[in-house]
Design a protein that fits this description.
The protein has 471 residues and is of the alpha/beta class. It has 2 domains: 358 residues, no CATH class; 95 residues. Helices cover 61% and strands 7% of the residues.
Length: 471
């Protein structure tokens, strides 16, 4: 009875964390606004099997999240909340699965609760789970596969879920779902447990995974063979060997810098935990149960670290395992310090408060003072809405110094017939000009443009000029 009572406030807290204010902020560049545009455009087309972006087939990602988002907007209407709902729900499921995986691995209820808390209070994870992105849904699919495997060691029918989870994850974000396989094999290797591999339930689940993943992929390959190969397959595989999105994301210390900035206190605690385990167990650490989860954390991080293309969102599959490792190590440390447990509880409270503060900083307007993403997106939204409402008829150009990253403008201005174009040889016809305010603070507009310009919108990050026709 007591266990059931505690679940109600736990689910209430999860709902508040993931759903409160979910639709408050505009879609962010780059991926979120693109995904929203693809969803709305495909929803209004005659063929929802083919994703569409600006009137062209879009094969960059698998369709499962987009189909779910179309279902949301059909029921709830077109809004940020409706299209982010699936990611937030996936975040809740990830926290719940982390709890059950931690309990099975450690055999300890306290470790399970602390693991769920550590993931919930990971600001980087929460920031991702409250966006229209694919990283948290595929992370949840990976966790489901691992949980099904651990459960299936006792009850074989659960092994069906191993490949089913991978198939669903594949339809969320392609090959990254296969991360579940080396994690499961590592567990089997360390525990010398291979009988599960002969279970018919496992291979029946494999057939089910093929049924989930193959039909859409075969359909796309059949109707768009070259585009499917060049865009979908090539884009997925090549980003591991060459930078996509600029050389800045290929720097060796990219992940270290972002984790230090967005994952406190957990990033610092990880190094403290590893150091303590090395001192406490020495070579015996290899024989401890916690060694498995430490190896998973290091292995998953290394997988993303050696990739040439690096984006912080890619690290989401790491976060649940990091949470379990920190919770488990913390519990082991606490168990060896019986005379100072009151002080350690105070330290734990401070750590959890620090995590809570990090979450607030990540998912609230406070983040505008950090990376400025929300502030920029709000300016883009207002510019897009202006272009939509005031200039929805006739083709016109909007020049900008950074057109690649202004998908948010396209989304909110989708009723207008405009083209975002890079700065260059600006013609004499009437047009609009978007300039970042940090550039305007250093440089003035060209006199020839300045005499023809009028300020339409001035935000915190961007300014929109209307340029009249040259005489």
């Amino acid at each position: 009875m007591n266990k059931n009572i505690i679940l109600f406030p736990a689910f209430a807290v999860l709902g508040i964390f993931f759903f409160f204010g979910l639709g408050k902020f505009p879609f962010l560049d780059y991926d979120e606004a693109t995904y929203a545009l693809v969803t709305v455009e495909t929803f209004g087309s005659n063929n929802q099997l083919v994703l569409s972006h600006l009137g062209q087939p879009w094969l960059d990602k698998p369709p499962l999240y987009f189909w779910l988002a179309m279902g949301s907007i059909k029921i709830l209407g077109v809004s940020e909340w409706a299209m982010r709902f699936q990611a937030a729900l996936s975040g809740i499921l990830a926290v719940i699965l982390t709890f059950f995986i931690a309990r099975r691995l450690s055999g300890n209820q306290t470790v399970a609760w602390l693991s769920a808390l550590a993931l919930l209070l990971n600001g980087a994870f929460m920031f991702s789970a409250r966006q229209f992105r694919l990283d948290v849904p595929v992370t949840t699919a990976i966790l489901f596969s691992l949980f099904s495997f651990l459960k299936g060691l006792e009850k074989r029918p659960w092994l069906l879920g191993v490949w089913i989870g991978i198939g669903i994850g594949f339809m969320f974000k392609s090959v990254i779902a296969f991360l579940a396989i080396p994690i499961i094999l590592l567990y089997a290797l360390l525990n010398r447990e291979w009988r599960w591999a002969k279970s018919p339930y496992l291979w029946l689940g494999f057939v089910g995974a093929l049924g989930i993943a193959l039909p859409w992929n075969i359909y796309q390959w059949k109707i768009y063979p070259k585009a499917f190969s060049d865009t979908y397959l090539h884009l997925i595989l090549s980003r591991y060997f060459r930078p996509v999105g600029g050389d800045a994301n290929s720097r060796f210390f990219y992940y270290f810098e972002w984790m230090a900035k967005l994952m406190e206190p957990w990033f610092l605690l990880f190094w403290v935990a590893v150091s303590w385990l090395a001192v406490r167990f020495g070579r015996k650490l290899f024989r401890e149960k916690i060694f498995f989860i430490l190896t998973v954390v290091l292995g998953v991080f290394l997988f993303f670290q050696i990739s040439v293309t690096k984006y912080f969102y890619y690290l989401n599959p790491l976060f649940p395992f990091l949470a379990i490792f920190l919770a488990w190590t913390g519990y082991l440390f606490y168990s060896t310090r019986r005379k100072s447990q009151v002080a350690l509880r105070i330290v734990l409270a401070v750590i959890l408060l620090a995590g809570f503060a990090s979450v607030l900083w990540q998912i609230s307007e406070i983040k505008g003072g950090g990376t400025g993403q929300y502030t920029l997106a709000e300016d883009e939204k207002q510019i897009g809405l202006y272009l939509d409402q005031e200039h929805g008829r006739g083709k016109f150009k909007v020049y900008t110094s950074n057109f690649y990253n202004y998908e948010t403008i396209y989304y909110y201005g989708r009723g207008a017939s405009f083209e975002l174009a890079p700065l260059g040889d600006i013609d004499a016809s009437p047009h609009f000009l978007i300039v970042p305010n940090d550039i305007l603070a250093v440089y003035e507009l060209d006199p020839a443009l300045k005499n023809r310009s009028s300020v339409i919108y001035e935000g915190k990050k961007l300014t929109l000029f209307k340029i009249s026709e040259a005489e």
